[in-house]
Amino acid sequence: MSAAEEVVTEAPAVEAVPKRAMTLGYGTSLVVLAALILTPLFVKNFIIFQMTMLLIYGLAVLALNILTGGSGQFSLGQSAFYAIGAYTTAILMEHFNVNYALTLPVAGVICFAAGFLFGQPALRLSGVYLALATFALATAMPQLLKLGFFEHWTGGVQGLVVTKPDAPFGLPLSQDMWLYYFTLAITIGIYIASVNLLRSRSGRAFMAIRDNEIAASAMGVDVSLYKTLAFGVSAGITGVAGGLGAIAVQFVAPDGYTITLAISLFLGMVVGGVGWLPGSIVGSAFIIFVPNIAEGISKGLSGAVFGVLLFLVIFLVPHGARQVALIAQQLAAKLKKN
Amino acid sequence: MKRMTAVRLRLTALSAVLALITATTGDALAQKKYDSGASDTEIRIGNIMPYSGPASGYAVIGKTQAAYFNKINAEGGINGRKIKFISYDDGYNPSKTVEQARKLVESDEVLLIFNSLGTVTNLAIRKYMNGKGVPQVFVASGASKWDQPKEFPWTMGWQPSYQSEARIYAKYILKEKPNAKVGVLYQNDDFGKDYLRGLRDGFGERAAMIVAEESYETSEPSMEGHIAKLKAAGADVFINIAMPKFAAQAMKNVAELNWKPLQIVSNVSASVGGAMKPAGFENVQGVLSAAYAKDGADPQWDNDPGMKRLFAFLDKYYPEADRRDDAVVYGYGAAQTMVKVLQMCGDDLTRANIMKQAASLKEFAPDTLLPGITINTSPTDFAPIKQLQMMRFKKDKWELFGGIMSGALGH
């Protein structure tokens, strides 16, 4: 318990993460990876679709985790970047007949640019004020997408229908299964890249800023550059997630990207453990499955049930999945000793 | 086009397989035919409603329908089969609708999805439903998109579309005020534009009668500027296509500007409590609108046999419902239509037969439609309700007048 308690007693939501604690051990990683690769072979298409969504939201949560857990900046505006990514993919696929796989880097780059630009003015703000500014972005986005000016491209309120890709090279996979493995490959790639980023010079700069901005600049870290960079990277990954989401759901419409999505992602990050990248997938599972469980318990009170469940999680394991993992690790160590 | 061919090919393949199965299993099974979701004892019906989120007021529709299917089951079901009504929440979020629809079709294996609510949400799943060949029947939305039997043979609407309602207003104006100058206020979205298109179609070659069109955004605080412009354009007929709050503001502004046009307000905002009362009864005398269903709040239906049946059902199966709520009347009527189609299907509960029977409704009158209005469909007509009746606001309620009018083109 002692290590977990130490973590708990540190009051701020964002605390220093030792480099190693950012990821899972090799053994655990391989088990998780094997589970992710093998499970789809044995389940229905609908479950595969849900697992795809799990990975996609996992990516979006991971992106927020880099921003908040890495550089210590808050964002309630991730839904806006998710929407930009989704629309970029949808518009490129449906209006320009671009291959779906090629639309994702474009979505990533556009969102990186959007995030980087938004990061500029956001530099002047910090803490709750930054959260509010990004909140404004999230509330504005659905209305911007409805504007008559863009309607030719965005389809306005009605949104756009996206064609789901078939498996290439005549592989004997269903559309859902192919999309799942495609998403899994991208997720693993981005996950590895993110871990390396946070372990690199830039990652150390992010964390230095998170821990103490003044000390960081005294050490020669270009605070404004790295802060905007963190915003850009986070937005870029969210954009890729949005693009994948558009392909998986086969539909984009402004009402799908409201502030509720941004708050869900934020929730996922907290439940998964701020700053602990593997927790992103746990957080994503929480925001996808717990509302369904709550609905199963009571339709009329689904919101209240969800609230109670969330409260229990925050109350019992305030550091989310990371804390659970730590406790499990210690238990395993004890068992080994005996 | 390529996509359509693919769907058609798949359908042909499917029917070929079905034919083969029937041929090999012989006569013993020829009587009863099932797709997944139907059996000797059960029919599973899926539904998606915004039980949470901004549109949760409409969730009453789903609750009414669950209660109505309970009643049908208590009375012995449909041809001995009980209905299992599985209704999920999508919070009016199209991405969630897709997830729930897939859950219904692939995990709960429902026979069909019935009366799911919303235009965007239904658009989000239309392609999926048609690709899978699962009926998406009696969609709860007033958009005109659900009547495309050729392109989307598995999707069918229910209520009159905004376009057909607008055509009825155009018809009325052409007949009563052929030299009118029409000014239109419309909400700048799907809903508003559908109406506008219906009006233009209805006026046909005389579309120039529309002298001014003003659109507004739901974020605007006041309608006054728009109304002043319409007045300045010299319009003597004002068509008010707005959500209740804005419609009420607009009608108030008309009175304040001392403008005296012939006013028509869309059925969406014809609610006495939601728009007419807030606008002030003294300001809305003589305003016109149209309706297709009876109003639970209107005492003139208290002794109507159909409404009596509705109220008796509510007392027994859904006592907490507010009988003045339009959504109750709506949900009940749609559920009755569904039950009618299932009865017509008999022992052939295949998805193809559901669509075939849904497209063969003739002169069917649910308890809650205005007297004389009936549901008619055909393989080329996927718009069940096309008729409305004009009504005029007098004192504190609507009075129906004139005959039943059809929103079809060219009559």
Overview of the structural elements:
The complex is a heterodimer of chains A (338) and B (411). With 338 residues, chain A is an all-alpha fold. Helices cover 73% and strands 1% of the residues of chain A. Chain A is built from 15 helices and 2 strands. The model of chain A is unreliable at 1-16 (pLDDT under 50). Chain B has helices at residues 2-25, 59-74, 94-107, 119-132, 162-176, 190-203, 224-232, 244-256, 272-279, 305-317, 326-345, 351-358, and strands at 33-34, 42-49, 82-89, 112-114, 136-139, 155-157, 182-187, 210-216, 237-241, 262-265, 288-291, 348-349, 387-394, 397-406. Helices cover 41% and strands 18% of the residues of chain B. In chain B, helix 5 packs parallel to helix 6 (190-203), helix 8 (244-256) packs parallel to helix 9 and helix 11 packs across helix 12. In chain B, helix 6 (190-203) links the parallel strand 7 and strand 8 (210-216). Chain B is α/β, with parallel strands linked by helices. Chain A binds chain B through residues 44-47, 49-50, 53, 143, 146, 148, 156-159, 161, 163, 245, 249-251, 253, 255-256, 258, 260, 295, 299-300, 302-303, and chain B through 3, 51-53, 87-89, 91-96, 98-99, 102-103, 105-107, 119-121, 123-128, 188-190, 219.
